[in-house]
Structures are given as C-alpha cells and as structure tokens.
Amino acid sequence: MSDLTTTQCAASIIVPGDAAKDRKSQLGRFARWQGAQALEWHSLDLAKYRDDLARTLAPASVSAHLSTVRARYRAILRDPQRRDDLYSVAGEHLAELGQDDSPANRAAFVVELEKRITNALAPESAPVKLLTRQDRPDAEHVRLTSEQATALMASPGTATLRGVRDTAIIALMLCTGIREMELCALDADDLRQRLEGELSLHVRLGKGRKERLIPYGALSGVLSLVDLWREQAHIGDGALFRGVHRSGLVLGGRLSVRAVQYLVGRYPVALDGDLVTVKPHDLRRTYAARLYHGGVDLVAIQQNLGHADSKTTLGYIGSLDAGKRRAPAMYNLARLMTQGALPLA
Questions:
Q1: Backbone φ, ψ for residue 295 (5° rounding)
Q2: Per-residue pLDDT at 143 exceeds 80
Q3: What band does 3 get if pLDDT is binned at 50, 70 and 90?
Q4: Residues 168, 228: contact at Cβ < 8 Å?
Q5: Rounded to the nearest 10 degrees, how much is the dihedral formed by the CA atoms of 145, 151, 152, 153?
Q6: Mean pLDDT of 86-114
Q7: Where are the alpha helices (DSSP H) in the chain?
Q8: Where does the chain hold its CATH 1.10.443.10 domain(s)?
Q9: Hey, which of 108-122, 275-289, 305-319 has the most confident mean pLDDT?
Q10: Which CATH class is domain 146-317?
Q11: pTM of this prediction?
C-alpha cells in the first residue's frame, strides 16, 4: 500500500503548512483521529468523528470543527496533485481486490472515491443539533463592575516584573476591549497612534485581518502602566508583551494566546461572595458594558470592538438585562387570591 496512506502522510495532506493556528489545531485533531481509527486520508466518517467530538466539546464547537474539515477536503478535491494520489491508491486497491488494473478501472475507482468523499462532506451526513438560547446565566458571561475591574487590575501587583506585565495586560484589555490575539500581535509603536487627533491604540491584526484604531479617551492613563512594563523590561520596539522567566529574564518572543488566557485566569475575582475565574473575553465584555452604561453610542462601541454587526455588540453589552426586562405590577393577583379565584394547591 502507498505511503500516502500512513498516518504521517495523511496528516501532511489534511493539515496544510500555511494554515492559521486555530485551523491547524482543528485539522491536526482530525488527522490524529483518522490515524487512531486506522482510516486512510480519503476515507471519511464525519458522523463518527462528530460523536467523538461531542464527548468533550459543545455543539457549536463540534460544528466549527466539522466545518473546518469540510472546507479543507473541498480544497483537497480541487487540487490536481490529490487526484494523482487517488489514481495511485486506486491501482493498489484494484490489485488487492484482484481486479484488472486498467486505466479505465482506475479512473472509475477515482470517480467513486471522489463521490464518496463528496457525499461524506454533505452537512446532512453528520448533522449537529445546536441549542439556541435567548439568555445565558451570569456565570457564563461575566461583566465586571467598575469596582471589580479595578480590583482585578490591582491583583497582580507591581512588586515583580511579571506582576507589572500582568497588570499592564489586564488593564489594557479592560481599557480597549481588544482580543487576546490582537494583544499578542501588538508592537510598541502601536500604543500611541492618532485617530482624528485622538490618542489611540492601533490594532494591526484584528479578526478577519482588519485593522482599526481604538481611542483611549479618559482611559489614556493605562499607558502609564504599559510604559512601566516597557521601562522595566527594557522594551524599546518590536513585540510589546513577552514572556518573563521565573528568574526575571524577559524572553524574546511574543506571548501566545494560550499564555494570555492562563495569565488572566491566575487572578480570580470576587463575585457575590465567590471567587470566579475570568477569561480574556470577559474583559472584552466588561469594556463594552462599561462604555454602554457610561453613555457611549452603540455604533462607537461596535467600531471599537471591531464587530461587523451591532447585534454581536449588543450580546457583549448584555443591555437587555434581567432588571430592564422585569415585568411591572400590571395585574392585581393578590385580589384573586383573597376572592378565592385561584384553586388551593
């Protein structure tokens, strides 16, 4: 059998070298699963893969993984090199089956393989049932009050270099609403740019590869915290946020998204008497909510966050909260009870 069917070569076909980090992670997971199932790269069982994913992932995440795999295989089918690979595999399968290895039989086998792959890629072959929820409990989407956000910024302290860095990172995320990946891509020169004269943060690598500028406004004091980090870490230009070894040595590379997530999670926040671990996206939601309740226009918040749709921004703000949706006293229910109109339990 051709070495194209080995796990290593299957992975090289399924996972392109130029894939983005998240996409590479999803395709790599699928390639490893294929290998564990002893399936060749051109043998797809997305329904079984869906069921295995569902053991540890939410339905929306399962759907995203399957979508990435489908998109990759559609690209594979358009690649002339992959058709040549299938033609070679066809010869081996025909030999194993004891059939005539003629060009016509090979071509027919390739057509059949492509048809099977195409059928396997159809969404209806591995549907994912998604639960649509109008509301989410507070524990899922944390939006800090101003006091809680201030307490979070103070948690790392400034007695150590790592504490100075973590304070600067948390403060900058709370004061600009940037995503983890956007923070990781920041250079020192991005800190002080201008938008119509307003001191702003330059986001060079936003979601969808879109650039934007975020005015600091009254929150420009965050620059003092970031400058303290730069001064103590001796960062003049290049990557703004970097790793710090336990010895205190500043490392050369940028922080990863995972590192930022871990960093924020090290500082729990007291919410209703309980210590709650917050996520970087909770800081983004907090920024949106604080701006909205501070009277900033919805469209302005949308532009600062880099959202294409204001509905997404409203989800971050959580403007239609339980308090605003509380029903007023529209009926005299007590009177019904006193008149015996309601049956006793």
A1: 95, 10
A2: yes
A3: very low
A4: yes
A5: 110
A6: 76
A7: 7-14, 21-36, 46-53, 59-77, 80-97, 103-121, 146-154, 161-176, 180-184, 222-233, 257-265, 280-293, 298-305, 310-317, 333-338
A8: 146-317
A9: 275-289
A10: mainly alpha
A11: 0.57
SS3 state of residue 254: strand
CA-CA distance, 169 to 180, in Å (whole number)? 10
What kind and span of H or E run contains 226? helix 222-233
Q: For residues 191 and 222, give the distance between their C-alpha atoms in angstroms, rounded to a whole number.
A: 10
Nearest to 90 by CA among 78, 81, 99: 99
Closest CA to 163 of 224, 242, 229: 229
Beta carbons within 8 Å of 132's beta carbon, 6+ residues apart: none
- Mind listing the pLDDT tens digit for each residue in 214-250? 999 999 999 999 999 999 999 999 999 999 988 889 9
Instruction: Retrieve residue 312's tokens.
Output: 């997404």
Question: What residues act catalytically?
Answer: 179, 207, 281, 284, 307, 316
Q: SS3 for 270?
A: strand
The residue whose two tokens read 């400058």 is 227
CB 211 within 8 A of CB 143: no
**In Å, how far from its chain's centre is CA 323?**
30
**Both structure tokens of 30:** 């699928």
Average pLDDT, the chain: 83
Q: What are phi and psi of 252, to 5 degrees?
A: -85, -30
The answer to whether the CB of 233 falls within 8 A of the CB of 245 is no
| pLDDT tops 90 at residue 205 | no
